[in-house]
Every structure is written in C-alpha cells, then in structure tokens.
Amino acid sequence: xxxxxxxxxxxxxxxxxxxxxxxxxxxxxxxxxxxxxxxxxxxxxxxxxxxxxxxxxxxxxxxxxxxxxxxxxxxxxxxxxxxxxxxxxxxxxxxxxxxxxxxxxxxxxxxxxxxxxxxx
Length: 120
Fold this sequence. Notes:
This protein has helices at residues 14-26, 37-43, 66-72, 75-78, 109-116; strands at residues 3-8, 29-34, 50-54, 83-88, 95-97, 100-104. The protein is α/β, with parallel strands linked by helices and 120 residues long. The protein has a 6-stranded mixed sheet with strand order 2-1-3-4-6-5, with helices on both faces.
C-alpha cells in the first residue's frame, strides 16, 4: 500500500517542494504539494500518512511558527494517525518544538526518513 504525504512549502520555493516530493516518492510516498496553510487545511479533508512542511509557511525567514502550530493542532496529527515533520532554516539540528518534530533545512534525507519512521 502506498503512503501519502502532504508537503507544505513557501510559494515560489519549487526546488524544496520538488526535491522533497521526489525523495518521498523514492521511499514509497505519493506526495501532494500545498503552498499555504489554507491549502493544507483544504487538502487534509482526505487522509495523509505524513505532513512535511515549512514551520513558518508563508512567512519566509521569520521565527513565527504559527503556521506549523495551526496544522499540528489538527485532529489526525494529534491522534497520531498522521506524522508531522516541520522544517526550517532557522534551526540547526532535529528538535521538538511544542511537540512537533522539527528538522533543519536544507535537510539531510536520512534525517527526514528517520523522522518519518519515528526514530527522532
């Protein structure tokens, strides 16, 4: 069974979305890309096994992680049905921020895999 992943990347940041999507495909996920919190929320009407997104989606360069907190607070994620991985250029190593698994960007693909498989 193919797993599904929703990628949230800044509008115009097609390189991150493309590379992340291709890698997720390589490890067995079918990716879908969204460029805003509203778009992610709309797409979450269907089940995703993982959400991988910019912590500050729509606010590049800022330390405002409200976008990620908004998505993280959704029921499927809180219930453990959907994995949540946030990424940002503002952090230097994998950490937990208010319960969210967060990895640095640009990210090491092994770290992303470890996060998706619950090893972080």
